[in-house]
Design a protein that fits this description.
Chain lengths: ~80, ~80
């Protein structure tokens, strides 16, 4: 079953990568880009009978390996579920 | 206007980071995870009058700075558009 995990820095955490991208875009003439936050994106293909099982497995994996819960939060999407974008 | 860019390696490009994650998960007991592909995720806040303008600006930025079109592909989502997930 196809799942996706989006890992982002918590809003209170400063994002130097994003700041660097905004500065680079400014010097390239893209002043219309006000803010950038960079995160990580994972596509996981998992063995699971139901979407709920897949979500539970992938959430556990995200907590333990993909995200650092101290400074990052994550969101899980599972194919075949009503996903909130 | 809030937009999101997902950058992923093209399917034909080997993803050593993803392979490492699958191996690590296997050794942690998560054999149910068959495949992982890692990508990048950006949230951009842009000045744009319409969703179409925002999409066009962000696609240009993704082409020039966020993605390497030789080995990566990207997908853009704009708030307030009918987004295909």
């Amino acid at each position: 079953m196809k799942t996706r995990v989006f890992v982002t820095l918590k809003p209170s955490v400063f994002d130097p990568q994003g700041k660097t991208i905004v500065d680079a875009l400014g010097s390239m003439g893209y002043a219309g880009v006000r803010d950038v936050r960079q995160g990580k994106y994972f596509e996981l293909d998992v063995d699971a009978g139901t979407a709920d099982e897949a979500r539970s497995l992938v959430s556990e994996v995200a907590d333990k390996l993909l995200a650092n819960p101290v400074i990052e939060s994550y969101r899980v999407e599972v194919d075949g579920e009503g996903n909130d974008v």
